[in-house]
C-alpha cells in the first residue's frame, strides 16, 4: 500500500462511466484521490488548468481524440508523470507503441481489482525502486531489451502480485515456460512450488492422474497412492502447458477445480482443497480452438484473464545477438571450448534469419557450432544449415514484402501521368474511380499484411505515424 501522508491524485481518462466508476472503486483501498475525465480534451484541460497528478490512467479509445495524442501532449509538458495505458484491444503492437510514446506501463481491459491495484502501486513507486534487471538486458531468465520484450516484462511485473490466471500464447520455442517461471518468481509465491504439466506430452488416460493424483489400485499399474500436480503445487503455481491439447472430459474437471480449488484423486471419493495460482500456455490461437470445439468456451473465459503474447524471435531485433552471445559463452564453458564472440558476418546472418523455431532453434544452432568447431570467434563457415544458407532464405522471404511495397507505392504515387493517359485511351472510366478512403484502406491493409500484423512496421512502410493507422482502423470498425 501507499505510504501515509497526503493522498496522491490519479487522473483516470475513461469514456465509459460505469467502467470508470468500477475501476475507481477498485482503487479505494490504496487511499488515492481519483478524478475522472471522459474525453481526451477534458484530460488535457486538467493540465492546462494547472492541476497536478501523480499518475494518469489513460484509455486508448476515446470519443474525441486518440489516447496516443493525449499521451504525446502530456509527455510534452510533464514528461515525469507516469502514464498507464488501458486498452481493450490486447494488441502487443498497441502496447509497444504506447511504450514508444512514453507510457510507463499498460493494462489490458477488463482487468481484475488486484491487477489494477498492483499496477497503480508499481507506477507510484519511485523509479529507483522499480527500475530492475529488465532495463539491463536480463529479466527472470529472459534475455533482451527490445520494446516488445519490455512490454512483456511490464505485464509480468503487473500480473505477478495477483492471483489472476495468466494465459500465455506464442509460437513454439518463444519461452512460454520461462515466462511462467518469471511470473512465479516475481510473485509472493516464489518460495512455494512451481509445478509444470505438459498436456500434450502425457497420454490421455494418464493426464488426470498426473494432474490430480491417484489412489493405490485405482487402475492397472497404480501400485501405490500418488500425489498429483495440483497437490504438489499447493501454495504455489501450477503451469499447464499446451492447454488446448487437453481432453474435453478432463477440461470440465479442470474448470471445476479452478472455480472451487477442490478436486478428487482418481479412485477416491475424498475431496481435497488447495490454494493454487494458475498459468497456462498454448502455441495455438485459443479462440480458434474454441470455435473448432476443441476447447471449452467456459474454460477459455475462466483462464483468459490476463492474456500475454510472447513475440517471435524474428520480431525482437538485436535481442537475437544478445541471446546468442549468452548461449555461446554457456555452451563453450560446458564443452570446454574457447569461443567468445561472433564475426560480423555471423552477426548479420543471425539478424537476417527468420528463426521459425525461435529461441529453441537458436540454442540448437549455437550448440551445434560449439560442439563441432574450435576457436575463439564463430565464423560463417562454422554455421550449420539453414544458417549457412541464410542469404537464400532471406531472398526467398523478401518478395511478398517487396511486392507489397510496390503496391503501396502505386497507391501512394497514384501513377498520375499513366492514369491520365489510360483515361484518355478509354482504358479507365469514371466508373472505375474508387473513393479515396477505400484506396487508403486497401493500402493500409496491404502494409499490415506485408508486416504480419505489425502496425508500427506497417506505419514505417507507409511513412505515417502508427497512431494514424490505429485511429483509421478504429473509425472503419465503428462505421461497419
Automatic annotation (TrEMBL):
Keywords: ATP-binding, DNA-binding, Nucleotide-binding, Phosphoprotein, Repressor, Transcription, Transcription regulation, Two-component regulatory system. Residues 142-371 form the Sigma-54 factor interaction domain. The keyword Transcription regulation applies. CDD domains: AAA, REC_NtrC1-like. It comes from Enterovibrio gelatinilyticus. Pfam families: AAA_lid_14, HTH_8, Response_reg, Sigma54_activat. This is Sigma-54 dependent transcriptional regulator. Residues 9-124 form the Response regulatory domain. InterPro entries: AAA+_ATPase, AAA_lid_NorR, CheY-like_superfamily, Homeodomain-like_sf, HTH_Fis, P-loop_NTPase, QS_regulatory_LuxO, Sig_transdc_resp-reg_receiver. The modification 4-aspartylphosphate is found at residue 59. The keyword Magnesium does not apply. Gene3D superfamilies: 1.10.8.60, 3.40.50.2300, Homeodomain-like (1.10.10.60), P-loop containing nucleotide triphosphate hydrolases (3.40.50.300).
Amino acid at each position: 500500500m501507499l505510504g501515509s501522508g497526503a493522498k496522491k491524485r490519479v487522473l483516470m481518462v475513461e469514456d465509459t462511466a460505469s467502467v470508470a466508476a468500477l475501476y475507481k472503486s477498485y482503487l479505494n483501498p490504496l487511499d488515492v484521490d481519483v478524478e475522472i475525465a471522459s474525453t481526451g480534451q477534458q484530460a488535457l484541460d486538467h493540465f492546462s488548468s494547472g492541476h497536478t497528478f501523480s499518475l494518469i490512467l489513460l484509455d486508448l479509445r476515446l470519443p474525441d481524440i486518440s489516447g496516443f495524442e493525449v499521451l504525446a501532449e502530456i509527455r510534452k509538458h510533464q514528461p515525469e508523470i507516469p502514464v498507464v495505458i488501458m486498452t481493450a484491444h490486447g494488441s502487443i503492437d498497441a502496447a509497444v507503441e504506447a511504450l514508444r510514446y512514453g507510457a510507463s506501463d499498460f493494462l489490458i481491459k477488463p482487468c481484475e481489482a488486484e491487477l489494477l491495484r498492483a499496477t497503480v502501486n508499481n507506477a507510484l513507486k519511485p523509479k529507483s525502486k522499480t527500475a530492475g534487471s529488465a532495463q539491463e538486458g536480463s529479466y527472470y531468465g529472459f534475455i533482451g531489451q527490445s520494446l516488445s520484450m519490455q512490454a512483456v516484462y511490464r505485464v509480468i511485473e503487473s500480473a505477478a502480485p495477483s492471483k489472476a490466471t495468466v494465459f500465455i500464447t506464442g509460437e513454439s520455442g518463444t519461452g512460454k515456460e520461462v515466462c511462467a517461471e518469471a511470473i512465479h518468481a516475481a510473485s509472493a509465491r516464489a518460495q512455494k512450488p512451481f509445478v509444470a504439466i505438459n498436456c500434450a506430452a502425457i497420454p490421455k488416460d494418464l493426464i488426470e492422474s498426473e494432474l490430480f493424483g491417484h489412489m493405490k489400485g485405482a487402475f492397472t499399474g497404480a501400485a501405490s497412492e500418488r500425489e498429483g500436480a495440483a497437490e504438489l503445487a499447493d501454495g504455489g503455481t501450477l503451469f499447464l502447458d499446451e492447454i488446448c491439447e487437453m481432453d474435453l472430459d478432463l477440461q470440465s474437471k479442470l474448470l471445476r477445480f479452478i472455480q472451487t480449488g477442490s478436486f478428487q484423486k482418481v479412485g477416491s471419493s475424498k475431496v481435497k482443497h488447495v490454494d493454487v495460482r494458475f498459468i497456462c500456455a498454448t502455441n495455438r490461437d485459443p479462440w480458434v480452438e474454441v470455435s473448432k470445439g476443441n476447447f471449452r468456451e467456459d474454460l477459455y473465459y475462466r483462464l483468459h484473464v490476463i492474456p500475454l503474447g510472447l513475440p517471435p524471435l524474428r520480431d525482437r531485433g538485436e535481442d537475437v545477438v544478445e541471446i546468442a552471445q549468452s548461449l555461446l559463452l554457456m555452451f563453450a564453458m560446458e564443452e570446454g571450448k574457447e569461443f567468445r564472440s561472433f564475426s560480423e558476418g555471423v552477426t548479420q546472418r543471425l539478424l537476417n534469419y527468420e528463426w521459425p523455431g525461435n529461441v529453441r532453434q537458436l540454442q540448437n544452432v549455437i550448440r551445434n557450432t560449439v560442439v563441432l568447431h574450435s576457436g575463439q570467434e564463430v565464423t560463417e563457415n562454422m554455421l550449420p544449415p539453414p544458417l549457412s544458407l541464410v542469404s537464400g532464405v532471406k531472398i526467398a522471404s523478401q518478395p511478398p514484402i517487396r511486392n507489397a511495397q510496390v503496391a503501396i507505392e502505386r497507391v501512394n504515387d497514384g501513377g498520375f501521368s499513366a492514369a491520365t493517359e489510360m483515361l484518355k485511351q478509354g482504358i479507365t472510366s469514371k466508373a472505375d474511380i474508387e473513393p479515396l478512403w477505400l484506396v487508403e484502406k486497401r493500402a493500409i491493409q496491404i502494409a499490415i499484411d506485408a508486416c504480419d500484423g505489425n502496425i508500427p512496421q506497417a506505419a514505417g512502410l507507409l511513412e505515417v505515424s502508427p497512431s494514424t493507422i490505429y485511429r483509421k482502423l478504429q473509425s472503419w470498425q465503428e462505421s461497419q
